[in-house]
Structures are given as C-alpha cells and as structure tokens.
Amino acid sequence: MSIDLLMQGFAGALTPMNLMWVVLGCLLGTAVGVMPGLGSSMAVALLLPMTFALDPTAAFIMFAGVYFGGLFGDSTMAILMNTPGQASAIASTFEGHRMAKDGRATQALATAAIGAFIGGMTASVVVVFLAPQLAEWAAASPRPRHLGLGIATIGIDPTTGVERATLGVQELFDGISLVTVTVAILALGEVFYVASRIRRDPTVRAMKTTGRPWLSPAEFKEAAPAWARGTAIGLPFGVIPVGGSEVPTFMAYSLERRLDRRRKEPRFGRGAIRGLAAPEAAGNATTGTAMGALLALGLPVSATAAIMLAAFRQYGLQPGPLLFDRAPDLVWSLLASFFVAMIVLLIINLPFAQLWAKLLLIPAPYLYGGIAVFCGLGVYALSNSTFDLLMLLFIALIGFAMRRHDMPLAPLMIGMVLGPLAETSLRDALLSSAGDYGVLVASPITWLLYGVLLIVVLFTLRARVRQRTSQDI
Asked: What is the spatial distance between Cα 280 and Cα 290, in angstroms, rounded to a whole number?
C-alpha cells in the first residue's frame, strides 16, 4: 500500500514545476548553509512569508529541499573553514577540518556528501513505511492524551472571547503572527548577533580544496561502517524532542572515537575519515525521521521543523494523523521529494562543493544587510502593517539577547507553534472529563509517554552535570 502511494507521490514530485522547486530549494538551502552563522532554520524562516502564493505542495517540496540543503551547506563550511552554520555540524569540524588542513578537503567533502546521502535516503525509506503506522496509532488515541505547554496566549481567547496579555493594544487582539516571530528570532535576531561580533571575530580564510572529489576504494571501505553506525544512531532521534540533530551527531562521533582507541594505530586527531562520516550520516538520518514525525504526529523536534509546522498552519493544514487522509497528494508528493532532494544534493555537492566557498567573497555588511531588508519586506508584504515591523524589531532584540547569553532558540519556537494546539487539546480533555485533571494520567499510554520524557530529561541533566564536572576539573 505504501509503495503504491509512494509511486503516486513520485508522479507528483517529478512534474516539471515541482522538480524545479526541489532543485531551487536544494540550491537555496545549500547556499545559505555555506554562509557562516546561517543555516536551514534561517533559510526556511526567510522564505516562509514569500511562498504563500505558491501551491502548498510546491511550497513544502521547496521547504524540504531547503531543510536538507542547509545541512549539506553547514557541513561544507564546517569542513572548509571550521565554522559550522548550525550546532548540528559542530561534530563534523573535529576531523573534517583536519582533513582539509591536511590537503584532503575534497575527500572530506565527498565523505560528508555521501554520508548525508546514505543517512537521508535510509531515513526516507523508514519514514515511508513508518509514518502511516504512526498516523494510525495517533488517530486511535483519544484527545485527552495530548498534553503540551506553550506561551502563545496573547490575543483574544478563542473560547471565551476574553482579551489576554494585549495591554489594550488593538493590533494584538489577533495575537502575534507566527511568521513575525519566526523571522525575528531566527533571522533578524541572528543578524544583530553577528553584527555585534563582526569586528571581534578574526577573518578566516577558506581552505584550498585540492585533490580528487571522490573517495578511493580504501577510503570508501574505511568510511562505510561509520556511515552505517551513524545512520543507526540518528534514526530514532528524529522522534525524540531533544532539540534536533546535535545529540545524535555527537553520539556518533564519540562512538567512533572510542572504537578508534582500540586500534593499533589510532587515527583520530589527524583527520580520521570515520570521525566525519558518522556524524554526517547521523545528522541527516535524524532530519529525515524528524520530517516523518512532523507529518505523522504533528511533532516538531527542532526549530526548523517548528517553522514548517507554522507554514502548514498558515496554509490551513494541520500535520498529524488526519493529514494523510485530508491531503494525501501533498503528503506523498512531499515524501517522494525527499528521495529526489537527496539525489539532487549529491549531484550538487560532489563536483561543485568547492564553488560554494566563493559566496564568502560577499562582504559581510552587504550580506547581512540584505538579509535584514528581506526580513522587513517579507513581514510587511504579509501583513501590510507598520505595527508588525515594530513587533519584528522588538522580538528580534529578544532573539539577540537569547543568542548573546547562549539561550536555546528551538524550545521557544516549538512552544510558540505548539502552544495553541496544546491549549485547545487540554481544554477539550477537561471539558470531556467535567474538569477532572486525572484524565491526563488515566491510561497506560500517557504513563509510557511521561516515562520516556522523564528518561530524556534525566539523560540531559546527567550530560550537563558531567560536562560541568569536566570543565571544573
């Protein structure tokens, strides 16, 4: 059944127009990803207000290309210049940049591209067969089992009609636009942060990408086990809300480092190809299954996924179990586009990766000034409101303060997107139980979910404690 639906999805994704949007999304995502400080989150945020004139299928196919392309671009900069665009590419800098400094930059780029292809393709296969089952399971669960927290309460209460946190400002009666918050936090706030540090950071010169842009049989044999292990580590993290692909990439890198210590001649620290192959495969595997979790469960596990959830809502669509029934053409065309995007990105990055570094020749003031202009134009074009521009500036300053003090942005974005949904589900649950809060813990499935959440929290706290202990030592 899934195969038949996927074939129908390919028929939709491979139309000339949709294929053009896939390629355009991959190019834009990669181009943004290779610029220091940027990434797929900012690319999707900037494109969000500019794509509402498109057909929903075309828009989300392009978003998927941007999402995956941003990861490819992040890795390119992590390898060439030791400046990852996002935290998910940090693990790739350790051995990847050493390979570049050792004159093996093109081999490192090929390792990253193939690893990302393997991880992304494997995740796409898993999603095709797993997402419909997840959707059926979620549809069978009664509404009282959906519980969440959010901060998106500004505006008129849709149930009671009461004003909430508007301070009497009429422009806030409809609440704060998700698009405004997204662009402000992830794009304009990042511009302010970069502008505040642009004179402090030393100028980094691009590495020379000499040599062959492919792997020898010996190098491929060396990297293959790491690609497989990284993919296996990354797959389950697409449905675990730990902030994105940062955790699995570091786990994959740490595993390869421990295995390397058992060798007679350890290679880590000198440009070990396995230290790059594993995190690249893990990061893209996580991204692929994260898209499946978004479509089947409506669960965003990263900032970029939260932005895409906001885009679905702007189109009047709600990701989750009912989406497979209400918009099957969109869902299966989007899933098919994952496979197409992986092939397109492999074609783009293997022979042309070194050309992306040329974008760094754009002077930083022009680059970030242009981004700021697009932020303002996008928000104003959507609302035609000067008040929204002022709100964009105010929220961007909040985003800048959060970046300045190393506060994570993903929880804020996820809370803003899921807040109204969580509030509605909580009210429905309490209304159906005559105000009895016990309905929230009345079934084994809720205890299972709370248990998984508790385990994730405990592991996170344990990692933080160990990190602080090692720093004190």
From this structure: 15
pLDDT at 161: 65
Alpha carbon distances (Å) from 67 to 304, 345, 366, 417, 452? 7, 11, 24, 18, 27
Cα gap 312→442, rounded to integer Å: 31
Q: What are phi and psi of 394, to 5 degrees?
A: -65, -45
The helix (H) or strand (E) run that includes residue 387 is helix 386-404
Rounded to the nearest integer, the mean pLDDT of the chain is 75
Which pLDDT band holds residue 205 (cuts at 50, 70, 90)? Answer: very low
| Residue 249, token pair as written in the block | 């990439």
For residue 171, the model assigns a pLDDT of 63
Contacts of 343 (CB under 8 A, 6+ apart): 117
The CA distances from residue 131 to 293, 297, 298, 438, in Å, are 7, 8, 11, 30
Is the confidence at residue 229, as pLDDT, over 90?
yes
Q: Tokens 């979790």 belong to which residue?
A: 293
Residue 155: CB partners within 8 Å, gap ≥ 6?
A: 163, 164, 165, 166, 172, 173, 174, 175, 176
Residue burial 420-429, b: 16+ Cβ < 10 Å; e: rest = bbbbebbeeb
382 Cβ contact list (under 8 Å, min separation 6): 49, 52, 177, 179, 388
* Cβ atoms within 10 Å of 445's Cβ, excluding its own: 13
Task: Give the separation between CA 38 and CA 190, rounded to whole angstroms.
Answer: 8
Q: Provide CB contacts within 8 A for 342, sequence distance 6+.
A: 68, 116, 117, 120, 121, 124
Are 99 and 273 a contacting pair, CB within 8 Å? yes
Name 101's Cβ contacts closer than 8 Å, sequence gap at least 6: 207, 271
Q: How confident is the model at residue 283 (pLDDT cuts 50, 70, 90)?
A: confident
Region 253-265 average pLDDT: 84
Helix (H) / strand (E) containing 163? strand 163-164
Residue 401 has pLDDT above 60, yes or no: yes
DSSP 186: I
Report yes or no: 242 and 88 within 8 Å, Cβ to Cβ.
no
